[in-house]
Design a protein that fits this description.
By secondary structure, the chain is of the alpha+beta class. The chain has a five-stranded antiparallel sheet, with no helix packed on it. Strand 1 and strand 2 form a beta hairpin. Helix 22 runs parallel beside helix 25 and helix 23 packs across helix 25. The radius of gyration is 30 Å and the shape is elongated.
Length: 457
């Protein structure tokens, strides 16, 4: 029943007494659920922010389904339906209403013994809902801050993953300076991956990254240099909590951190298919290190995945960067197979992206294959021109990127198969668009010649 919330339905009603009741209901469209973490909440506004792997969206208290809200909502994972027009969440519910104080992730827990709380009053204060510790920290002297860190240091990993205690750790990051802050960041760096797995721990790291000076931010994300296990890396990039930490850390990672991570992930790219973390790596590499783009494409090529439907979105993203080596690998895989590739939706997406992004010579080779005669079939370009079901931007890409001479050759091919091409509206549209581009090129050249002659006179 919960899965049906937010779905579009068709129904019939009957009047029973003074009420209208639905007597026949049919689901027309299932809701597409999204997941994210509530990162901010303003009680006065009864509103907050949900951070997903793609974006941040607004959420209001009134949009939570009955029983779907939690008092300490910050740090909770929620599922919701996205109103794209307003970028607001609707039909919101906390994903897991579990007792986080009893949870255990890896070797890090969020449970404190009664003896710990008794022997360390500051720890008891740190996990108390009505604690004044975060408010008082700003007026503490350096000596008092050092004493606080000495008392809490052994508990900091657990405190950072606690749904209340993480706020104390974040406030320490904001208030501490000098060697005290260095000590604190060192602890967070050591426990980086375990903390990132829990909702509160991820919030602790995200808020710390937003508060630290640049050199300490880079020190914190240097934790990625400790990743040596492929499975640990995949888990970190795909876990709902830690993936948010990774995506926030990515802009701070230089080549010395990112290349080893990509090489570590390379054998398992198939298991990361379609995941936002992988797309974000490509986005970052496009601006920071093009060699990473080639490493990813080369691994896909080695595993024969460049033309895989499951990796289509990733390959399109890689090709769209315009990296010559990446486009070269794809060209090698497509050459001689375009007749098959072009007729699948994901294959057409690859070809369109390639034509828009590859070098002139690389595009020319693809267009040459489209124009080639086939033993028992018409040229591929004719098949494309008469296919009513495939008007998806390929013609626009060809008209925009092809040389005028190539377009003229295509028009000559259409003349040979005139009856077939002009028999359908889409074929006539191809002829019209190509002719307009070819003729406009002639007009431009003719105008240039006339101007040059006038100048000479």
């Amino acid at each position: 029943m919960k899965r049906m919330v937010g779905s579009e339905v068709e129904y019939k009603t009957e009047k029973r007494g003074k009420k209208l009741e639905a007597v026949m209901v049919r689901i027309m469209k299932n809701v597409e659920w999204k997941k994210g973490m509530v990162t901010h909440w303003v009680p006065e506004e009864l509103a907050g922010v949900i951070r997903t792997q793609e974006q941040e969206v607004l959420v209001y208290r009134k949009e939570f389904v009955p029983g779907g809200f939690a008092p300490d909502i910050v740090g909770k994972m929620v599922k919701f339906k996205l109103d794209m027009a307003k970028l607001e969440a609707t039909c919101v519910a906390v994903e897991q209403l579990v007792d986080e104080s009893m949870s255990m992730i890896g070797n890090i827990g969020t449970q404190f013994s009664e003896l710990d709380l008794l022997h360390c009053p500051q720890l008891a204060q740190a996990v108390s809902e009505d604690s004044r510790l975060t408010r008082d920290m700003g007026i503490m002297s350096t000596r008092e801050q050092r004493q606080l860190l000495d008392e809490l240091e052994q508990f900091l990993p657990t405190l950072g993953a606690h749904h209340v205690g993480y706020k104390v750790v974040v406030e320490m990051v904001r208030q501490f300076e000098g060697t005290l802050l260095d000590r604190l960041v060192g602890i967070l760096t050591r426990e980086f991956f375990l903390l990132s797995q829990t909702p509160a721990g991820a919030m602790c790291l995200l808020d710390s990254l937003s508060s630290l000076p640049m050199e300490l931010k880079q020190c914190l994300v240097h934790a990625y240099s400790d990743l040596t296990s492929y499975q640990q890396a995949v888990d970190h990039l795909t876990n709902p909590n830690s993936s948010l930490v990774f995506q926030s850390s990515l802009p701070l990672m230089d080549t010395s951190l990112l290349r080893p991570l990509v090489l570590l992930l390379s054998p398992g790219l198939e298991s990361l298919a379609g995941h936002q973390s992988l797309f974000r790596i490509v986005e970052h590499a496009e601006h920071a290190d093009h060699q990473i783009l080639f490493l990813l494409a080369a691994q896909l090529d080695a595993e024969h995945l460049l033309l895989s439907p499951d990796q289509s979105a990733l390959v399109v993203q890689l090709v769209t960067t315009g990296n010559v080596k990446v486009c070269g690998l794809l060209l090698h895989n497509m050459s001689g197979r375009l007749a098959t590739i072009i007729h699948s939706p994901h294959g057409r997406d690859l070809v369109i992206a390639f034509i828009w992004s590859a070098t002139d010579l690389q595009v020319e080779l693809v267009l040459e294959e489209l124009c080639q005669e086939q033993d028992d079939k018409v040229p591929i370009i004719v098949q494309l021109a008469v296919d009513r079901s495939k008007e998806d931007g390929l013609m626009e890409a060809i008209v925009s990127q092809a040389r005028r001479e190539v377009l003229a050759r295509m028009l000559n091919i259409f003349k040979v198969f005139r009856e077939r091409v002009i028999a359908c509206e889409c074929g006539r549209r191809w002829i019209g668009c190509l002719s307009q581009k070819v003729n406009s090129g002639c007009d431009i050249q003719r105008g240039t010649v006339i101007r040059e002659q006038e100048e000479e006179q």
